[in-house]
Write a structure and sequence with these properties.
The chain is of the alpha+beta class and about 300 residues long. The protein is built from ten helices and 14 strands. Strands 8-9-10-11-12-7-13 form a seven-stranded mixed beta sheet. Strands 1, 2, 3 and 4 form a four-stranded antiparallel beta sheet that branches. A hairpin with a 2-residue loop joins strand 1 and strand 2. Helix 7 packs antiparallel against helix 8. The longest helix is centred in the C-terminal third of the chain and has 15 residues. The relative contact order is 0.18.
Length: about 300
């Protein structure tokens, strides 16, 4: 039986231990991702033996894969049983290729798989983002040069208690500058605030760009494993030419110095503008993720 609860900061240790056994660099396998979006997605988590299992949603419910070590088949069966107890079809989200192989090994022809490329993760070479060498990054280098010309006093600084309040103020201004009134902005802001309020406890790393005395861009995230970092949030004013490009490069330089080879910049959610921006940085891995609905026997 799975005993689900709302994620708390105290769950950090066992969740990260389970995630250390993950097969991939999936952005969902980070404690920050689970914790920050707990309200927006009605997230519940369960510690089943040596596995982490997540359940999202109030009505349209889906589950994570069991992440950890031990009897994978048993853990999946627990998900199936929990879904049935709620009167819903078991739906598992975020299935990468290696986990699909496992599901088919233990549950042959019992799952139907569905693919939405808006759920794929964009994973980049940190060294490429830091250096921006070659013709394919010519435009990015021009954007950065333009930003530097227009902001000769700019500087990069690490996010800390000294500037977190300024980052929050900047994000508030960013929302106010939007003209589409998207309700998702408030959900995202709630997650952003939760991250800043618990920044040190969550072990986050981030950087900001200051120009004309004000924070005008920031980026923060956390370690997935020794090779990969996940960037949870990146914000810059759309009207400040080159601001996104410079925070991206400067932050990548720090990740490179820390020994990371890859950075996961999460999904594009099928949004055309976001997709274009993420593709413009040429991911080295476009991590395919599927969802699966259990259609097995009811006995």
């Amino acid at each position: 039986m799975l005993n689900f609860k709302t994620p708390e900061l105290e769950d950090d240790g066992w969740v990260r231990e389970c995630f250390s056994h993950a097969h991939s660099m999936n952005c969902e396998y980070s404690f920050g991702s689970v914790y920050l979006w707990r309200a927006a997605y009605a997230t519940k988590i369960a510690h089943y033996k040596d596995f982490f299992i997540c359940r999202w949603g109030k009505t349209d419910i889906s589950y994570s894969l069991p992440i950890g070590t031990g009897d994978f088949k048993d853990a999946v069966e627990q998900i199936v049983n929990d879904a049935r107890s709620l009167g819903i079809k078991p739906r598992i989200y975020g299935i990468t290729e290696s986990y699909k192989v496992l599901l088919e090994k233990y549950f042959p022809d019992k799952f139907l798989y569905f693919y939405d490329d808006g759920c794929n993760d964009y994973i980049y070479s940190v060294s490429e983002l830091a250096e921006l060498h070659g013709k394919k990054y010519h435009g990015k280098r021009n954007h950065i040069a333009n930003f530097i010309r227009n902001n000769p006093d700019w500087k990069y600084e690490e996010i800390s208690q000294k500037n977190i309040s300024e980052c929050i103020d900047f994000h508030s201004e960013w929302i106010m500058s939007r003209d589409d009134n998207d309700p998702d902005y408030s959900l995202e802001f709630e997650a952003v605030l939760s991250g800043f309020e618990n920044y040190e406890k969550l072990g986050f790393k981030g950087g900001a760009i200051r120009a004309n005395g004000k924070i005008i861009a920031y980026n923060y995230g956390e370690k997935i494993n020794d090779l990969c970092f996940v960037s949870h949030f990146e914000k810059a004013p759309s009207g400040e030419h080159g601001a996104y490009a410079i925070i991206n490069q400067e932050f990548a330089k720090r990740l490179l110095a820390d020994g990371y080879e890859y950075v996961n910049r999460e999904e594009d959610l099928g949004l055309e503008g976001l997709r274009k921006a993420k593709q413009s940085y040429h991911p080295v891995i476009w991590l395919k993720k599927e969802s699966a609905v259990y259609e097995g026997e009811n006995d």
